[in-house]
Amino acid sequence: MAIVTFTSPMMHKDKAVYAVAGDTRTILALAEQHQIPIPFECRDGNCGSCLIEVGYDDPSQRKGIMLTEKEKSKLRELGKITPEEIENAEVNDLPPRYRLACQFIARDEDVTVTFSGVPGGAD
Ligand code: FES
Prior knowledge:
Blueprint: E1 2-7, E2 15-19, H1 27-33, E3 51-56, H2 69-77, H3 83-92, E4 98-100, E5 111-114
Parallel strand pairs: 1-5
Antiparallel strand pairs: 1-2, 3-4, 3-5
Bound molecules: FE2/S2 (inorganic) cluster.
């Protein structure tokens, strides 16, 4: 069981929800289920509107990640991933700071998801 905390200037206050272990839904699907207004358009890693920043509540808990070529190239296009982060993801299995909510699946680590609602503006 993971706790996913959503925070955004678009929300009155932070909201923490449980993600069930083994759940394969994306953060975007989880957000929708809990009426959390992460913007989205394509749901397919193409538009970049669902950009989120992911913080790991316990950095030592960061798990192996699934960063697809599509997500990687979109993040690169948005200027939200560095060559070091790409290398870290590929070689060391370390997640980058920014992700696409429609591609990111929370596992059993507790995370804080920040979104601004402005593509490219999660920080
Ligand atoms: S909704 Fe388009 S990239 Fe996620």
